[in-house]
Amino acid sequence: MKSRSLLSALSLEPQDIPPIWLMRQAGRYLPEYQKIRQNFKNFLDMIKKPDICAELAMQPINRFDLDASILFSDILTIPSALGLGLEFGEGHGPVFSKPISSTEDIQRLPTEVPHEELNYVYEAVLATRKVLPSNIPLIGFCGSPWTLAAYSIEGKGSKDFHKTKKFITNYPKEVTELLNTLTQACFEYLKEQVKCGVEALQIFDSWADILSLQDFQNLSLNPTQKLVELLRKDKLTSEIPIILFEKAPPRDLTELDLKNITCLSLHWSQNLVMTSERFYGIKALQGNLDPSILKNSDEEIEQAIQYILNSMHGYPGFIFNLGHGITPDIEPSKVQLMIDLVRGN
Questions:
Q1: Would you say residue 92 has pLDDT above 80?
Q2: Average confidence score pLDDT of the chain
Q3: What residue segments make up the domains of the chain, in order of their start?
Q4: Catalytic residue at 278?
C-alpha cells in the first residue's frame, strides 16, 4: 500500500501520495450535516454538544476517507468564554453582543482563562478521538490572537473592520494588552486540546489581510510567534506539529522568519511554487487549491489539481488542501473527484 500519512508529512517524510484533508471539511456542503443542523436553532448550541461534534467530525471521514480529522468547533470560543456574548443568528455569521468598545472593556476581561466555559470543547476532543479510527490524526485549532482581537473589537465579521482599525490606532498600548491576554488564552486552550488527544494544531489567522505591513508584523505575526514559543517551551506541547494559516497577508510568506512552525497552510492567492522553493526541506506545506475551482467542469478541476501535484512532486512534507474553507455551494461529488485525482484513483 502506498504511504500517505499526515503526521509523517508534517515530519517532512516524503509520501507516495500527498495526504489530504480540507479546511471546513465538516459543514454545510454535506447533506448529512444539514440534516443534523436543522435540529438546532443556534449553531452555538450545536457545538456545545460533544457527541454531536464528534458525529459531525466523522461525516467527511466516513464519506471521503480523508487522511485527517479536525475538531468540529469554532474559532470564537475563547472570546465567547471571556464574556463577550457570542451569538449566531439565523442568516448571518457570528455577532458579539458585548464587543470591546473601550479600554475599560479590556481591563474587565478575566485575568485567567475560564476553562469551565470551554469544557464543551475539550469534551468534544475526547468524544471525537473515541470514535475516530486510531490511524486518523485529530487536528485541534484556535484563531490567532489577532483574529480573535479583530472579531472582539469589531463585534462581527466585516469587509473593512473600520471600528477595529480606529481602535488600534487610538489605543495601541491597550490593544497590546488585549493581544497578550488572548495569546496566553490561546496557549492554555490549545494545551488542553493536546491533553485531550489532538495530535496536531492549526492556528487560523483569518484577518491577516486587513492589516498594513507594519501592523501585520506587530499585531498579527508577533503575537502568533509568541503563542508558538509558549507551545514549544511547554513540556506537553513542545513536540506537537503546528500548522499556520495566514489569509492573504500583506507580506509574502517567503520573506518571513517563521520560527518553530511545522507547516504553512497557503491561501489560494499565494504562490505555491515560490513558497516551496523557499521552504524545501525546512517546513511542510499545505494547500492551496482555490475552493471556487470545485464549481467548474471536471476538466478544469483536473487541470488545476494536476498543476499543484506537478509543482509539489517530490516535496518532502506536502499536504493537499484547499486554500481556504470549503463553501456551502460545492457539490460533494466534486470533492470526491478532487480526492480521486489527488490519489490517482
A1: no
A2: 95
A3: 6-343
A4: no
